[in-house]
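User: Run a structure prediction on this.
Assistant: Running it now.
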Amino acid sequence: MANFWRLWKILFVFTRYRLDDLVPMDQLPLSLRLLLWIAPWRFYPAPKNLNRGARLRLALEALGPIFIKFGQILSTRPDLIPEDIVKELKRLQDDVPPFSSKVAMTLIEEQLGQKISTLFAEFSAEPLASASIAQVHVARLFAEGSAAGKEVVVKVVRPGIEKTIERDLQLLEFMAALVVRYSAEGRRLKPQEVVEDYRHTIYGELNLQIEASNATQLRRNFSDSELLYFPEVYWEYTRKKVMVSERIFGIPVADVDQLYAQNTNMKILAERGVEIFFTQVFRDSFFHADMHPGNIFVAREHPENPQYIAIDCGIVGSLTEEDLHYLAMNLLAFFNQDYHQVAQLHVDSGWVPPSTKVHEFAAAIRSVCEPIFEKPLAEISFGQVLIQLFSTARRFNMEVQPQLVLLQKTLLNIEGLGRQLYPELDLWSTAKPYLERWMRDRFGPKAAWKEFKRQLPSWVEKAPQIPSLVHGALSRLNHLDENQLLMQQQMRELGLALTQQRQQKRHQTLGTLTLASGLFAWWQAYALAIPELAGLGITGIGIVWLLLKA
C-alpha cells in the first residue's frame, strides 16, 4: 500500500509540473505517443512563469533526496542535458530548502549531550547551506584544546529522512522486481543489484560517523598534496547524526567567473581533476564518489597552481585488485583503439558471456568508436562514448556491473566538471599517460622490489619455522608416497583377483559346454543303442563334474 501511495505521489508531481514536456515524443513508439497524448495531465495547465528546468527542479525537490541526487548528477552533464535545464538543476547542489534551525539545534544537543552554549563559543542558527540529506551551520570552538578558537561547520542530518528514503527504496525495489520479471533486457541491467548497492550507499550517507571516517582516510591519502585538500574532522564533536569539521573558505568550483577573476589556471585545474580521479581509483582504490560541483571548491591561494578542496565524503567507492587490473587494461586498449583487446578483456573479466564471439564484439565496438575518434580529441565526450557502447553491448548480453556503477558515475561527474572549467579538456591525453605509468609501476621491476620488501618482514618472522615446515612437508610427501605404493599394490592385487575370477569363469563356461556335450553324446549313444558310446559319455560327465567341484 505504501508503494501505491508513493507511486501515486510521483504521478501527481509529474502531472503538477507537466514533466511530460521533457519526454522526447518523436522517439517513442506510436502506441505510447497516443497514450501520452490522451493522458489526463494533458489538460492540466503548466505552472506559469516557470520554464521546463525550474519545473523539473521543483519536481525533484518535492519527491525527496533520492530524486534530488539524480538531479545533482544530471546538473554536471551539459553535454547531455540542455543548458536551460542544467542551469536550474545546479541549484540542487546546495540550495535545497532548509529545515527548522530550532529542530537542528535540538538534535545537536541530543546527539552531543550538552547545550549549544556549552559546546560552542559561537553558533549561527541560520544554515550556511542545505542539501538533500543534511544541512550545515557555522560555529566557533572555545579557546582551549587542540582546536582552540577554530571556526567549524556543524553538519546535521535531516530529521525523519530515513522514512522517506526507505519508502523510495522500497518503491525502487518493487519497480526493479517488475523489470526483472517482465523484461529480458531489464534483467541484463541487474536493476535489483543496482538498487541494493544504492541502498547501501544512501544509508552510509545517513551515518555521519561513516562519513567522518571516510574523510579522515581521504585526508590521510592526500596529506601534503598539491592536488587535493580534505578538511579536518573533530571526532570529539562527531556522532551518528552530527559531524563537526574544519571550515574551508574556497571558491565554489561552479563559480567560473570568480575563478577567472583571480586568474586561475583553468587548464591545470581541469587536468588536475582528472588526475585526482585516477589517483584515488588506481593508487588508493578508495575514491570520493559524490564529486558534484556543490561538494568541490578551489583554494584561493596560488591560483596559478590551483588546489581542489573536497567536502561531503558520505559516498566513497572501492574496487578489487582484479577489477582495477581489467579496468586499466580496458581503458588503455580503448585509448589505443585496440578494439579486439577491449572485446577480449570484456570476456576475460566476465562482463559479457564466455560464449561471446570476440571478433563480432570487436567489430561492433569499432563501428561505434571509429567515427568518434575521427573528431579532435578535445571534442570527444566520454559520456557519449559510454552511452553508445552500452547501447551496442545489449546485443552481446553485456550485464551491468554493480561494483562499477559508482565509478562510472564519478567519472562522468569529473568529465562534466572538467569541461565546465576548461571546454578544451582532453580527457584521453590526460588520462592515458597516468594509466601507462600506473601499469608500468604495478608490473615493472620497481613494483616487484616493492612487493619483495613488503613481504620480507613476514618471511623473516616465519624463517624459524621453515625447517619444521619443510620437515612436515617432506613427511607428508613420504606418507603420500607410501600411500601411493600401497594403493598401487592394492590395485595389482585387485587386478590379479579379477584375472583369476575371469579365468575361473572361463573354466566354468568350458566345463558347462563339455558337460552339455557329454550329456548330448550319452543321449545320442543311448538313442542309437550303442552301449560303449553311452558309457564314454557317462564317464565324461563324471570327469567334468569333478573338475567343476574342484
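The first strand starts at residue 122 and ends at 123.
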